[in-house]
Design brief:
The protein contains 2 helices and 3 strands; from the N terminus they run αβββα. Helices cover 27% and strands 34% of the residues. 10% of the residues are buried.
Length: 71
């Protein structure tokens, strides 16, 4: 899956695609971000290097799961 495909799938599910570099790291990671009112929710997806092996179903499953803080 390419970043463009992941972005399109995230938009269909109501999320935004975001690439981030963690503190003092050179590795980029893929996150999904959504706004509900004034609160932003971010969901970790995978390292950018592993995005190619991610399937559409795995991405949708990660977006649909509840984070521990909202459960």
């Amino acid at each position: 899956m390419t970043p463009e495909e992941a972005s399109r799938i995230m938009h269909e599910q109501g999320w935004f695609y975001k690439e981030r570099t963690r503190y003092k790291s050179r590795t980029k990671y893929v996150y999904a971000k959504r706004r509900r009112g004034k609160i932003y929710t971010e969901r970790y997806i995978c390292p950018l290097s592993k995005l190619g092996s991610l399937t559409r179903q795995e991405l949708v499953t990660k977006l649909a799961s509840q984070p521990l803080s909202e459960a």
